Amino acid sequence: MGRCIENPRTSCALGGALGVASGIERVIPIFHAGPGCGLQVSIGQKTGYIGGIGCPSTNMFEKEVVFGGTQRLRETIEGSLEVMDGDLYVVLTGCTSGIIGDDVESIVNEFKRKGVPILNVETSGFKGDTYYGYEATLEAIVNDVVKEAPKEEKTVNLFGIVPHQDAFWQGNFEEIIRILNKLGLSVNTFFTEHQGIETVKKSSAAALNIILSPWLLKKFSAIYKEKLGVDTFRYSGLPIGPTATSNFIRELSQKLNLDRDFVEKVIEEEEDYVYSHFEKNIGVVSNYRFIIVGDANTVIGITKFLVNDYSQVPLLAVITDDIPKVYHEKIENEVKNLEYGRKPKVIFEIDKWKIGELVREYEDEATLLMGSSFEKEIGDELDIFTTLVSSPITGSFIINKGYAGYRGCLTFLEDLYNNN
Ligand code: SF4
After folding, report:
1. Ordered alpha helix ranges (H), 68-150
2. Which has the least CB within 10 A, 237, 283, 355, 412?
3. Burial of 420 (0-12, 13-18, 19+ CB in 10 A)
4. Atom of ligand 1 nearest to the CA of 11
5. Edge-to-edge, what's the strand order for the sheet holding 152-159?
6. Does the pLDDT at position 1 exceed 60?
7. What are 185-234's pLDDT values in tens digits?
């Protein structure tokens, strides 16, 4: 049964789907949805080749609701093909179409039969949140366009960093790619470096999928395994800082049978880079007792960094993704898997007011609150030093800043001390 929550932190399924479709170069998303949906789900999303409010939409009104919207969809696809040059057209359905039950697939099949590269994904907002749309759209695209290919042992696919939902997704991708490139690996992400449908098609040649998430893309990784013969290496959380990133590299290099001496040399160079900056700035280290609020990847990554590399004390970790209960224990264990004695209390909560009440319980003890712009309010009220690490972050223009990896932890520390 559904419940009301104050200030959700994700968009609807259509928003997650738009993030995927518009993130792949020369993919054209086509909305079959009500007139407000495009604007609503574009908030906070950057436009790619065609994205955001530039997407074509059927803008379903009363007429389509009463008499069906399939003819309007047919016309919208025809118009899009006429004026928008793309490599793949992806019809994304909103709530209106989902409720009236338009047969979208039969319309899309009409165009497929004419040789148009097109597919549809059922992404009515009521089906789920951003993560649902992200998973459903990736599954649909991979199922439709990827065919088995001979393996390239130095190529990997990198998934799990969710466009736009991770406030620092572009920077996080860039840093992980930089590290993987340094290990001699080519990286398919679908969302960076102008990667388009050709990259998606050849992703079956990868030696391994890397999924940076404790819970996302289970069905998706099964498609790669069963249909395309690609295994998955799952790393729970974003690797942030030298300890986690070196662990990540060592585990990955074992899966890929990379030369151990070479891998250790890369780790030594990267750790030296970070530790030399730590040494020069060691005078500014504080003793924080902290609360962190955010998505699972961010909470795991920052908690481990602050505890294992920076000796700060964790009090409370609030995971704000609407994660199926079956994953809760695994994620809680991951947050508490720390090198020092004190473990944080781990709570799964989405509602802004309830999170505020949880923070209030630590009013006397906490000296640092990390979360989204929603947590700024309770942080200011309780006079706890607050910094923004998770979505939504309003009032900041973020291009490619990221917290992942070796270099990202330095950016995180800069932001922490600059109170960004
Ligand atoms: S929840 Fe439904 S109506 Fe609202 S933006 Fe998403 S698809 Fe459109």
Report:
1. 70-83, 95-100, 104-113, 130-145
2. 283
3. middle
4. 6
5. 186-188, 152-159, 206-212, 232-235
6. no
7. 999 999 999 999 999 999 999 999 999 999 999 999 999 999 999 999 99
Residue found by looking up tokens 């439709």 in the block: 144
| Helix-helix angle 169-182:405-418, to 10 degrees | 140
Residue with tokens 């359905």: 93
Angle between helices 328-336 and 296-304 (to 10 degrees): 20
Q: Look at the block and give the residue holding tokens 């939504």.
A: 392
What dihedral do alpha carbons 248, 254, 259, 261 form, nearest 10°? 60
Residues 6+ apart with CB under 8 A from 167: 388, 389, 390, 391, 392, 393, 398
The model's pTM is 0.96
The CA distance from 109 to 118, in Å, is 8
56 CB-contact burial (10 Å; exposed 0-12 / middle 13-18 / buried 19+)? buried
> Is the pLDDT assigned to residue 145 strictly greater than 70?
yes
Atom of ligand 1 nearest to the CA of 41: 5
| Chain segment 320-335, per-residue pLDDT in tens | 999 999 999 999 999 9
Burial (CB < 10 A; 0-12, 13-18, 19+), residue 165, is buried
DSSP for 337-390, written as a single string: --SSSPPPEEEE---HHHHHHHHHTTTTT-SEEEE-HHHHHHHHHHT-EEEE-S
CB burial of 132-151 (b: ≥16 within 10 Å; e: otherwise) equals: bbbbbbbbbbbebbbeeeee
What residues are paired with 155 via a beta bridge? Answer: 186
Which two structure tokens, joined as six digits, stand for 252? 């990955």
Which residue of 10, 31, 37, 53 sits with most ligand 1 atoms within 8 Å of its CB, as the best mutation to test the pocket?
37
Contact between 197 and 27 (Cβ < 8 Å): yes
